[in-house]
Structures are given as C-alpha cells and as structure tokens.
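For consistency, the fold was encoded as tokens, as this record shows:
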Amino acid sequence: ELCAADARPTVVLRRLGIVVGGTGISPALQLLREVADPKGAFGASCQAWLLYSSRTSLDVLMLDELRAVELASGGRISVKHTLTDPCEAVGGSDPWEAVPQQQHFRGRHGHFASFFDPFAPKTGPLRTGPGEEAEFRGQVDSQMLQASLPAPGPGTRVVLCGPQGLLDSVRGKLATLGFGGSDLVELGSGHKAEASEGPRSTAGALRSLAATTTTTAGALTSFVATSAQGPPEVRPAGGLGSFADRVRAAQSMT
C-alpha cells in the first residue's frame, strides 16, 4: 500500500494523451509501447494519443518505431505530427532549405537533420498531406490539442515532454481546454509546481502518474510502493528503460 504522504484519489487510467517536442519522443515511445502491449503496465484497454512537434519533416525522430507501435496497438494508439518551420507550409520550399549550413555542428542549429548523415525511414518519408500523419502546421495550439488528444475527464491523463518553452505553452492551453493540474504529468521539465518541490525529474513525474492511477494488474501501484524510499535511478542513456523494467518486475510480484 502507498504511504499516507503518497495517498491520492485513484482512477483507472483509460486514456493517455502525450504531447512532445524534439527528443521528448524517446520517453513517449516507451509509454506507447506499454500501452500497445495488452500485458503492459496500463492494461489491455488503455488508449493513447500522441502529438509530436518537429521543425521539419526531416527532423522527426523514430518515425519507423512510432509507426510500428501504432500498428501493433490494434487501433488503440493514434500518432499525429505538427511541423513548425515555414518551409513546411502548403506550397512551401524544400525542407532541406531550412537546414542551415552549420548542420555538421550538431546541437548548434536546432535541427536533427544533416546533409552529411541523412536518415531515410524504412517505412517511407513522413506523410504530410491533409488527413495524414503530419496534417498539422505551426506551433502546438488549442485547436491541435483538441483534435489530437482525448477530452478531459476521469481516467484521462496528459504527459508533456520536450523543450521548456513547449511545456509552458501547452500547459496553459490545456488548462483552457479543461485539464486540471492533477491531470498533467511533465517529464524532465524544470517547471516548479511549488517552490518546495524543486524540478521534477522523469522518474519523479512517472511516480506522480503512477500514484494517481491504477491498472488492471496494479503494476503501477506496486511500482510506487516499492519505490517509496526514494526515486529510482534513471540513466540518461537508458531513457525510460529502467521504468519499464521496474513496472514489469512489479507485475511479476502481483
């Protein structure tokens, strides 16, 4: 059982919205894989909706993996993209023109694409037509969120992961759509909900999500209970792999 300090009203997590930007897709993919797995941490009935913001179609990371997990979910996962660079507007220029000449200095130009090391998804380029996977253009706005995420309500949570500017912007827009603070979980952000809390780590945010939800197998509750003495170790190179491992270990004990 959870200790008194962690006790909160619990609901069954049925609908999971995820909004990410840039490398925030890495932990999001781990969550989607748990949703896609009928025996995963969120149970066989949980659904997920992902909205992924990238500068250009060339900057989308893990496209093959996202398509694979969406296909494997049997319709329980929806993945949508928005592209923010003006070159991606209808009738815009070649997206390669948005990548500056310093593209060989990684991390200096805000793009992941490189002329010197181009990446071609095995499942084909990002589909950018109307009604397709990348139908949206521009910064994440309220209209995109309303079209891409589940409506607020019992059993619904939204996870945010990405640059701080994205988190700050999306948090406010979600509030206008009816999502309360307890409905949101931020991964790896520096946002301080209260001065005493300090920055929320990925592990801490996941514990918060787990503490307010239960699943069919009760795996997330077990995860929180077995981690009550302190946050689990999260290694940057491992992403959320350690979280998934702990959830599976908790499942084996239930």
User: Anything to note?
Assistant: The helical segments are 25-36, 63-72, 142-148, 164-176, 202-211, 219-226, 241-253.
